[in-house]
Design goal:
With 461 residues, the protein is an all-alpha fold. 68% of the residues lie in helices and 0% in strands. It is built from 21 helices and no strands. It is found in: Endoplasmic reticulum membrane.
Length: 461
């Protein structure tokens, strides 16, 4: 009861402070960058004009349909109320983060669970967009809802949440694929155990050896494949129909993007993985600091692998760095300043963080190893998280921190291998709060003007 009261106090404080900042940001600026398109489209849908579509918008209309459903009946279609959709979704995210982590860390100290939930709920890029009318926050809500239902074995509800997640952003299909694939792999390994699906094994630790053994078993006994289909189709039909429907859309549309397809052309961009590692390190300081010595020991002990990876990383940076014209031209994003004042300023600057990239990716690997203490962190999750992250991040030409939010959250929520102390988590939370305060301050105080815009422009993530 005491821990529930503490969590209720936190979510109440989160809501109250966020509401104050929401009003401050609203008074400061009524339209922020791409909100120009989202707000206009949201207003059309809110007033029932479903036949109007802005070709500049490249995502599915999930955000606008939700807005129309909740605001349309009351004709509350103002900028203020449209933005409020994101704020309400962010409060829902706080609860979802807490209950997902509670499922994964069933036996963990409640104080630790609360601190980690606070850290993830205040993730700076996600938190800032909670005050604007963008797709990101509601997209996270739907993906987290799907993950929670999957963890609880409520797969019919998970299928509905999967549909809503894809409706928010097309790229969320990779996370639907991760959830489905993980369940399929676990079922396949179950069926290949002595005694079949009904057998039980203490710990249910499904690692890479289990997967390899299951593949060999299925090749020897093809009948198991039929049994697998008989288990998978009825139990995970909700996820399957979403994947199949999306493949049909992809085939008929010719692209994952709707609207202006030239604005988002998929292209291999390996250094995005390195930028994600910086993002991960910046907002997982508690885990970085608690494993620093271990990472250094691994890098030193396995120095041939370290040397090889450093060379490969340098080659990828040299051959595959893409500098998107939007990033160079738009000084309303922090990435503009980071690139122009560091990465793009000197030819050698983009190579300097390579040791950090490698060290953080070692940490990610440690987190991803299948865990004997976590029934959800199996080989399926490990492999498919990597595949989904590569698909959602490494095919983007533009460096955009919002692309990193979901892979970051899902790894932090599911992993149990790397643990840290309550003191370091407290520092991480305080760091997030400080960054959030600074970004809001910069947004409110720093303004400049563009020739084609009458209103002042401001800096966001």
């Amino acid at each position: 009861m005491r821990n529930q009261l503490i969590f209720f106090a936190f979510i109440s404080a989160y809501s109250a402070v966020s509401f104050v900042l929401f009003n401050l940001i609203y008074r400061t600026s009524k339209v922020v960058i791409d909100e120009e398109f989202h707000l206009r489209q949201g207003e059309h849908y809110c007033h029932g004009r479903f036949d109007v579509w802005d070709n500049k918008i490249t995502t599915f209309p999930g955000l606008y349909l939700v807005s129309a459903s909740f605001l349309g009946p009351f004709q509350s279609c103002s900028i203020y109320h449209l933005r409020m959709i994101s704020l309400i979704a962010s409060i829902a995210n706080v609860y979802l983060i807490y209950i997902i982590r509670k499922v994964v860390l069933a036996n963990r100290n409640p104080a630790y669970l609360l601190l980690e939930s606070m850290s993830l709920a205040t993730l700076p890029p996600l938190y800032f967009f909670s005050h604007l009318y963008y797709t990101d926050v509601l997209s996270v809500t739907m993906v987290l809802t799907m993950v929670y239902f999957s963890l609880k074995g409520m797969h019919n509800w998970g299928g509905i949440a999967a549909f809503m997640a894809i409706l928010m952003r097309q790229t969320n299909v990779v996370w639907v694929g991760m959830v489905l694939g993980n369940q399929v792999i676990k079922t396949a390994i179950d069926l290949c155990q002595p005694g079949g699906k009904g057998s039980s094994r203490k710990g249910r630790h499904y690692g890479f050896a289990d997967l390899w053994q299951s593949i060999k078993t299925m090749l020897k006994k093809p009948k198991i494949m039929i049994d697998l289909l008989r288990h998978v189709l009825p139990n995970y039909f909700g996820y399957i129909i979403n994947i199949v429907g999306f493949v049909i859309f992809l085939f008929t549309n010719g692209s994952i993007v709707i609207g202006d397809k030239t604005a988002h052309v998929a292209k291999l961009h390996v250094p995005q993985i390195f930028y994600f590692s910086l993002f991960f390190a910046a907002f997982s300081s508690s885990h970085v600091l608690s494993t620093l010595k271990r990472i250094a020991r691994i890098m030193r002990k396995k120095w041939p692998m370290t040397a090889l990876c450093v060379c490969l990383f340098a080659a990828a940076i040299h051959l595959n760095t893409i500098v998107h014209p939007y990033m160079l031209a738009d000084n309303r994003h922090y990435t503009f300043y980071i690139w122009n004042r560091f990465f793009g300023r000197w030819w050698f600057a983009r190579y300097l963080p390579i040791p950090i990239y490698y060290g953080v990716l070692v940490l990610v690997v440690l987190m991803l190893l299948p865990s004997s203490n976590n029934h959800e962190q199996t080989v399926g999750f490990s492999l498919l998280w990597v595949a989904a992250t590569l698909a959602s991040v490494a095919l983007q030409q533009l460096i955009e921190v919002r692309y990193f939010i979901l892979p970051f959250l899902l790894l932090r929520l599911i992993q149990t291998n790397v643990r840290t102390s309550a003191n370091l988590l407290t520092l991480e939370v305080l760091g997030n709060l400080a960054i959030n305060a600074l970004t809001v301050y910069a947004f409110v105080k720093k303004e400049f003007y563009w020739k084609n815009y009458q209103d002042a422009q401001r800096i966001i993530w």
